[in-house]
Write a structure and sequence with these properties.
five-stranded antiparallel sheet; Beta-Lactamase; disordered C terminus; binds adenosine-5'-diphosphate; 43% helix; kinase; 27 strands; transferase; 6 domains; GAF-like_dom_sf; 787 residues
Length: 787
């Protein structure tokens, strides 16, 4: 659409397209008539610009909406150019109106879309910003504007950095610069200042926007509030630190103090106080309250735990949380004994919560006081729950440790008093742990760990095979053991130990042998001393009674002997007389005979006294009799290192005998067997005591040793009275034994073994046989053996 106008503005000519478009007649449109089709909103602007162009005399353009003949408007670009004469004066204006409606609408849409986008971004529940490729900020969303109250100027001139916490800014900047250089996405956590001046943790993420060539043209960033997460993390770290304190065995007071400070950090305006309870005296034991004046918290110590309007007392007794929102104004606390105390120190609210053990026992109370009236918020309840749980763990652990220390002390004291130590042996790894007392018994350095090798070196060389056998037994699955063993100390002292062990199988299959070890040396030494004294005494008794016997025999026999001598001398004298006094000599010879008989009588009487005592015959269980003797001699045998193997057959008939006398025989045989093995070093000192059925209703008992045996001159001499090969021997044991067995109508004999040693056997009749045969005491024996 073309047109021309006069130099001062009014239109002279409008092209046909112009007139067709507007539907105006040429005369209607000329001059200023065309302004009738300009959109009312655009008219003033258009006229103003047209006048400016005229005044400037230079070409110019503007945009405006022109009405079509059908009443609709379209956008046009209106351009005017001056036409000048030779002298440069404007003679005319030429203009063209170009239809730009399509473009304009597209532009509007774009603006509208941008506005939509901006609104969307504004509503994103995060702080969103856009950046130029160089990293400087272009804009921020509404949320960020509202959060930080940054001015538009701050946003673009870098003043926005003022909203970042001073401690975080340097790292943020260097990291951001690095990302802007490399084009790598940016992620960083920092604190952002809110309108109220407080800082909150945010995590910022910024990603680059590339053009088609891959060049970064913009950055978009978003940051989220992570204050909740940060607080939870800090809380968790604090809790962890407290649990570490507990685990590392810090003092309970220190742990509880740190707990109070931790809770105070998480709950501003709160002051914490833990009250320990002693249920034995039902009083509060002490208070831990690092932030409260001691004049406030100390008086709790020793106060009775009563429900008497004491918040902590009620909490402890009723196991409930007690909340005094305002101890000053709440009538419930008017008569409380602590009301004035609390108020005097400037506190108004008191919340007390019981601290319970896993089993539900109240261990303490956890108390929070504040200077203003207040009720606990959900946040407060949350941290109170954490605090009471940690306090419970700390207190329980310290109680358990105290109990453990007590039992440990008790145990080590008991071990010390009873000279009993203990050790554990991990069968799979050979790890060994000694108790304190066992270190003392073994005389090992208590600061060093014990090894099997070390133990072996301490064990008496003769007992090493026994130790090896015991260990093999444990490895072989035996669960209980008890054995005796000797130690040889570095100065050659010998210690006697008695041990009782038990093998434990853990869930994971590991085997552990727990053994109690008693130092028996003292008792053994005393017993040995006693045994020695006893045998010395027995010897002395024997010697002295023999002496007394000899003296009495001498005395008894001396009288008739001196009578005989006197009579014989008299007789000689009478026969030597001249003439011989034959009657007198006969008389004195008679007296000699009388005195001789007298002496024989004395001797017969003595013999009757010593050897002809009749045994008391009764039914005797030979096995039982033997067991009693074994029990009696066990100590002696063990001391002599003799290993006894009883083979007592069950179901044997009862025998006829004098129980005590038979036991005397068994005792004699055992003692002789042990004596015979005293010099044996190269083989086990094996002693078998065996009972079995003998032919003809007899029962036999034999004692088999591995000792020296007897020489080629046979066994019979052994049974002679006073035959002995021992320094201390009397040589009457076997002869007495034989006479006892003879008097039981039995038989006693000795036989050399095939291997080393000898076997002594006696055989006595069954009780039933003895009764039915009517054999009586004193009857001649069935056999006199090899005698
Ligand atoms: P004592 O034991 O006092 O010597 P005994 O009459 O009991 O008296 O024994 C006599 C002797 O018989 C002993 O000294 C010893 O030489 C021998 N004797 C006894 N028992 C055995 C035995 N089991 N093995 C070898 N010799 C033995």
């Amino acid at each position: 659409m073309a047109w021309s106008a006069r130099p001062d503005g009014p239109t002279e000519f409008l092209s046909k397209q112009y007139l067709d478009y507007t539907g105006l007649a040429a005369e209607q449109a000329r001059g200023w008539g065309w302004t009738a089709v300009v959109h009312a909103d655009d008219l003033d602007g258009l006229i103003t610009i047209w006048q400016t162009i005229i005044a400037s005399g230079k070409a110019g353009e503007t945009e405006a909406r022109l009405r079509r003949f059908d009443g609709s408007y379209r956008w046009f670009l209106i351009r005017a150019n001056p036409l000048r004469d030779e002298s440069g004066n404007i003679v005319k204006w030429y203009g063209v109106n170009i239809d730009i409606d399509e473009r304009k609408r597209a532009e509007d849409k774009a603006v509208e879309a941008e506005g939509e986008l901006q609104r969307t971004i504004d509503d994103i529940p995060a702080l969103v910003s856009a950046y130029y490729a160089d990293g400087s900020r272009i804009s921020i969303n509404r949320r960020e504007r509202e959060f930080t109250r940054l001015s538009a100027e701050d946003v673009t001139n870098g003043g926005w950095r003022g909203a970042i916490h001073p401690d975080d800014i340097e790292l943020e900047e260097s990291k951001w610069r690095a990302c802007v250089t490399t084009g790598e996405p940016f992620e960083h956590e920092y604190r952002v200042r809110a309108v109220d001046g407080t800082y909150r943790w945010h995590i910022a993420r910024r990603v680059p926007l590339h053009d088609e060539a891959g060049k970064v043209i913009r950055w978009y960033g978003m940051s989220h509030d992570i204050e909740g997460r940060k607080q939870a993390e800090a809380f968790l770290a604090g809790e962890k630190q407290l649990l570490e304190m507990i685990a590392s065995g810090s003092l309970l007071r220190d742990v509880l103090g740190a707990l109070c400070e931790f809770i105070e950090g998480a709950a501003p305006d709160c002051f914490c106080d833990v009250h320990m309870i002693d249920w034995i005296s039902s009083t509060f034991e002490y208070a831990v309250a690092p932030s409260l004046p001691s004049a406030y918290s100390d008086p709790i110590a020793g106060m009775p735990v009563s429900g008497e309007l004491l918040p902590c007392g009620i909490a402890a007794l009723q196991k409930i949380q007690v909340v005094a929102v305002d101890i000053e104004l709440d009538p419930r606390w008017y008569t409380s004994p602590v009301r004035s105390h609390v108020l005097r120190h400037g506190y108004r609210s008191v919340w007390s919560t019981p601290v319970c053990s896993k089993e539900g026992r109240v261990l303490a109370t956890f108390c929070i006081v504040q200077r203003k009236p207040a009720a606990p918020s959900p946040h407060h309840q949350d941290i109170i729950a954490h605090a009471t749980q940690i306090a419970s763990i700390a207190i329980e652990r310290s109680l358990i440790e105290a109990a453990l220390r007590r039992t440990e002390t008790l145990l080590s004291e008991a071990q010390r008093l009873s000279s009993t130590g203990a050790f554990s042996w991990r069968v799979d790894t050979d790890e060994i742990a000694f108790s304190e007392e066992l270190y003392r018994i073994f005389e090992f350095d208590p600061s060093a760990p014990v090894t099997l090798e070390q133990i072996r070196e301490r064990i008496h060389a003769d007992d090493i095979p026994s130790l090896t056998a015991q260990m093999a037994r444990v490895r072989g699955g035996q669960s209980h053991l008890g054995y005796e063993i000797r130690l040889r100390m570095s100065d050659n002292r010998v210690k006697y130990l008695r041990t009782f062990g038990q093998v434990i199988r853990h869930h994971d299959g590991r085997m552990e042998c727990l053994t109690a070890v008693q130092d028996d040396t003292g008792r053994r030494q005393a017993e040995e001393a006693l045994g020695k004294a006893r045998s010395e005494l027995a010897h002395v008794t024997r010697v002295s009674s023999l002496g007394a016997l000899t003296a009495s025999i001498a005395h008894e026999v001396n009288q008739p002997l001196s009578g005989i001598i006197t009579n014989a001398s008299t007789c000689l004298r009478m026969l030597a007389a001249d003439p011989p006094n034959v009657d007198g000599a006969r008389e004195t010879a008679h007296r000699t005979i009388r005195d001789g008989n007298l002496a024989a009588d004395v001797i017969a009487r003595l013999r009757a006294l010593f050897s002809k005592r009749a045994p008391t015959i009764e039914p005797v269980d030979l096995n039982e009799a033997a067991r009693e003797v074994i029990a009696l001699s066990a100590g002696d045998l063990q001391r002599s290192r003799v290993v006894l193997h009883p083979q007592l057959h069950e179901g044997l008939p009862l025998v006829a005998g004098d129980r005590v006398q038979l036991q005397l025989v068994i005792m004699n045989l055992l003692r002789n067997a042990a004596d015979a093995m005293s010099g044996v070093e190269d083989r086990p000192k094996r002693l078998v005591i065996r009972t079995e059925h003998d032919e003809d209703d007899y029962v036999r008992l034999s004692v088999e040793d591995a000792g020296a045996g007897f020489g080629a001159d046979g066994s019979e001499r052994l049974f002679e009275a006073f035959y002995t090969t021992k320094n201390e021997g009397m040589g009457i044991g076997l002869s007495v034994s034989r006479s006892i067995i003879d008097s039981h109508c039995g038989r006693l004999w000795a036989a050399a073994n095939d291997g080393p040693g000898a076997t002594f056997t006696f055989s006595v009749p069954e009780y039933s046989k003895y009764r039915s045969s009517g054999v009586q005491v004193g009857d001649s024996p069935r056999s006199v053996g090899v005698r």
